[in-house]
Amino acid sequence: MDDSQLLRYSRHILLDEIGIEGQQKLLDARVLVIGAGGLGSPAALYLASAGVGHITLVDDDEVDLTNLQRQIAHTTERVGRKKAESAREAMAQINPAVEVLALVERADDARLAELVQSADVVLDCTDNFKTRHAVNRACVQHRVPLVSGAVIRFDGQVSVFDPRSAENPCYSCLFPQDQAFEDVACSTMGVFAPLVGVVGAMQAAEALKLIMGIGESLAGRLLLLDGLRMEWSSIRIGRHDTCPVCAA
Ligand SMILES: [Zn+2]
To answer: Which residue is catalytic, options 139, 170, 186, 246?
Structure first.
């Protein structure tokens, strides 16, 4: 680390749990963020500001006026641009040293496997079950920890699925793939703007902890946020012996 990096990251380095060693792990890390919307915006901005060295951002969508109420990586000026590229610009303005690969694509299973394989941590910031399950399958297959977040209306949830340890559940243990969960889109249900910031920032925090190997992750716990009462609850989630994804 040069002098300017030591200054930039000094408030991390001051923390005993992080120090120069932890910060160096962040600088060397490779993180995959799927989705550059409500959750992906704050998550990607914090990963970049915190100094994660290599970030791949995947999103095939374009910035729309209706996104700006909550998707804080985008600006009025960038309406109509690709979200992955818009977010890369916002990240570069905060921390130009971070290498951001913006992929404007909707990754299928084969592509996801390829992307997940080269990541230390994956953040699922998407809004549909099909992609969530595809990301989970790739993470289980390649034993890469997955930080998952979701927000709808005034409700949020966040958890970590870490297949590196055999007792941890995967996303599919919690929400079985064959069960018909209805996708509830922000476009029809609405979403309270700051909640995606809260949950997306927590996803970034969990990702940074996993990279540095500090603290205790959310693996095996699901945090639920009731934004109207502003109350968190935590439920234990166990592995399913018959889960077709992780029990094979
Ligand atoms: Zn499972």
So the answer is: 186
